Amino acid sequence: MPNFKVFQDVPDEMRVKIFGSQDVALNTDASGRLAITSPGLAITTGTGSLAVSIGTGDLPVTSTGLAITTGTGALAVSIGTGNVPVTSTGLAITTGAGALSVSIGTGDLPVTSTGLAITTGTGSLSVCIGTGIVGTAINSRTILDTSEDITVTTVYAPAVTTNVLEYITYTLAVVNTGTTAAQVKIQISPNNTDWIDDGTAVTVDAGALVTLVPSIFLKYVRLAAIATTTSATLTAFIQGQK
Question: For residue 236, what are the β-bridge partners?
């Protein structure tokens, strides 16, 4: 066609422009590299695979909403001696039936996020570290905090019966809120039906506080309390975390 050259005889004047649906040119940095800066970057694959491989360079990703979703393919990230720093206020990585594999050589994988979610479907999550460091910070734990007000007589009565199978640490406590003394002891059970004493009874004077910790671990634990006279009023506690 006239005025449209197929072969450019001046290489420096050869330019190619790629436009999206909004008729806007692609953004590049001063070196001509494709610059991607977005408040919401989404990478989605269908049935294929998404592979990211870095040699000795780095792959910095800064985003307020980065989502990587794969269909039935696999997501593989392989780093040589570089680093992959990811800073995000909401990073979500979701794989379908494929596998998510992260392999690090001598670099590091620092992830700083206020909302990091990694979800795998029927595939697997594999993280392989060479001499680098993967740091994980957990800023919250599941807390156990239960209390119960009881009035006891001259027959042992249970309080704060709790399933503690998943808790790594817990303590029981009793406050005598009445004017007469009472005695309390720990009881443990494997099935919430058959109970056995753990240790001996401890006296709780009026207005006093005592703490108790079992010496043997079983699935269920409770306090058993009895009044030293006609009746006593107590507040029983169990507190723990996992």
Answer: 148, 174
Hey, what are 110's tokens?
């620092």
Tell me: the pLDDT tens digits for 175-232? 999 999 999 999 999 999 999 999 999 999 999 999 999 999 999 999 999 999 999 9
Distance CA 126, CA 110 (A): 16
Backbone angles phi, psi at 13, to 5 degrees: -95, 0
Which residues contact residue 180 at a Cβ distance below 8 angstroms, ignoring those fewer than 6 apart?
206, 227, 228, 229, 230, 231, 232
Map residue 165 onto helix, strand or coil.
Answer: coil
pTM: 0.47
Domain ranges of the chain: 39-129, 143-241
Contacts 24+ apart (CB under 8 A), 96-99: 96/70, 96/71, 96/72, 96/121, 96/122, 96/123, 97/71, 97/72, 97/121, 97/122, 97/123, 98/49, 98/70, 98/71, 98/72, 98/73, 98/74, 98/123, 99/74, 99/75, 99/123, 99/124, 99/125, 99/126
- Strand 75-79 and strand 100-104: the pairing is parallel
Amino acid, single-letter form, for residue 185: K
Helix (H) or strand (E) holding 161: strand 157-163
CA distance 184 to 152: 10
pLDDT at res. 194: 97
CATH number of 143-241: 2.60.120.380
- State the chain's mean pLDDT as an integer: 76
139-142: long-range contacts (C-beta < 8 A, 24 or more apart)?
A: 141/241, 141/242, 142/166, 142/241, 142/242
